[in-house]
Design a protein that fits this description.
Blueprint lengths: L1 H25 L6 E5 L6 H17 L3 E5 L6 H8 L7 E6 H10 L11 E17 L7 H10 L5 E4 L5 H13 L4 E4 L3 H9 L5 E5 H9 L3 E6 L25 E9 L4 H15 L2 H9 L3 E2 L4 H22 L4
Parallel strand pairs: 1-2, 1-3, 5-6, 5-7
Antiparallel strand pairs: 3-9, 4-7, 4-8, 4-9, 4-10
Length: 324
């Protein structure tokens, strides 16, 4: 009799707990949802974030705000959200370089990309695009690699900074092609592109979105994309893999994350809201003009990307000699 009483007491307590969780989720959100972006306003990541977050807010009626916390290659924003209350009201836009690469470079990072964050969903993917000046001597990638082999350390390339995905993508190409080039780091993508246009540097691995206006104006020459397949925006531009370097396959990804500990029901509500926004035809069409492939799908897709790249990039970072 005592055992039966204990059983029903435990069952009643469990039902009460489940009811409390359900009640919490049904009242969600009960304050503005803050989406932290690890970069300054006006850049590609900021544009992607605001476009999708605004659509989520429009469709759900939720109050959602984008907050920019730039600095330290995105680690400041990631650290901030990792310590936020796990109630679903603080989220972060994470991407390949901030989530998987930065922890491999900065040894003082205090958060773990897998342990301290929950994936809500993949937002978009995009390759990098290796470009040269349209008036320069390197009009295709094999030509540039041949020159680098003949004159080690003479051919130069720009990047927005040491340890950026742009820098590491070309460093990986150097490793795979057995060549040595001179890296010229800049303080941001704008100055790097400006010096490519001014013929003060030979090559640059840019985002498709940043390079497209210059390609359309015939100022830069597309050489190759880093993705697994050709870009729909540049169907005649080969992948680096096609040209004989399959290890240099890099698709940038952008995802929405919550801090660890948020109730599953809230994560599912956020996931559904994100996917509904990503299915909007206007969103798909607009982001396609930025070279972004919109990717609504299961949360596990983003989790697998994080796991894969957290395992992949430390060795590349070490060989490139940029770990701090």
């Amino acid at each position: 009799m005592k055992e039966r009483s204990t059983f029903f007491t435990a069952l009643f307590s469990s039902l009460l707990a489940l009811g409390a969780v359900g009640a919490h989720a049904s009242n969600f959100p009960n304050e503005p949802i803050r989406v932290t972006v690890p970069f300054a306003p006006g850049g590609g990541t900021d544009l992607l974030s605001r476009t999708i977050v605004n659509k989520m807010a429009e469709q759900t009626g939720w109050t959602m705000v984008v907050e920019n916390r730039p600095g330290a290659a995105g680690t400041i924003a990631m650290n901030y959200v990792s310590r936020a209350r796990p109630d679903g009201h603080d989220l972060v836009l994470g991407q390949l370089d901030t989530v998987a690469i930065a922890p491999a470079i900065y040894k003082n990072v205090r958060w773990d990309p897998i342990r301290d964050f929950q994936p809500i969903g993949l937002m978009a993917t995009s390759p990098l695009l290796l470009v040269s000046n349209a008036k320069g001597q390197y009009q295709d990638l094999p030509m540039a690699i041949k020159a680098a082999k003949e004159l080690p350390g003479k051919l130069d390339y720009a990047s927005p900074g040491i340890g950026s995905i742009s820098h590491l993508a070309v460093a990986l190409l150097e490793q795979e092609a057995g060549i040595e080039m001179q890296h010229i780091p800049y303080k941001g993508a704008g100055p790097a592109m400006a010096d490519l246009l001014g013929e003060r540097v030979s090559l640059y691995a840019a985002s498709v979105a940043a390079a497209m206006p210059q390609i359309q104006s015939k100022n830069v020459q597309p050489l190759a994309v880093t993705g697994a397949s050709r870009s729909a925006a540049l169907p005649n531009t080969p992948t680096i893999s096609e040209l004989g370097y399959p290890a240099v396959e890099i698709d940038l990804w952008y995802g929405l994350f919550a801090p660890a500990g948020v109730e599953p029901e809230k994560i599912e509500m956020l996931h559904e809201a994100l996917n509904n926004a990503l299915r909007d035809p206007e969103i798909v069409a607009f982001l396609a003009t930025q070279g972004l492939i919109v990717s609504p799908g299961k949360r596990e897709v983003l989790a697998e990307l994080v796991k894969r790249d957290v395992e992949r990039w430390p060795a590349i970072v070490e060989r490139a000699g940029v770990a701090n």
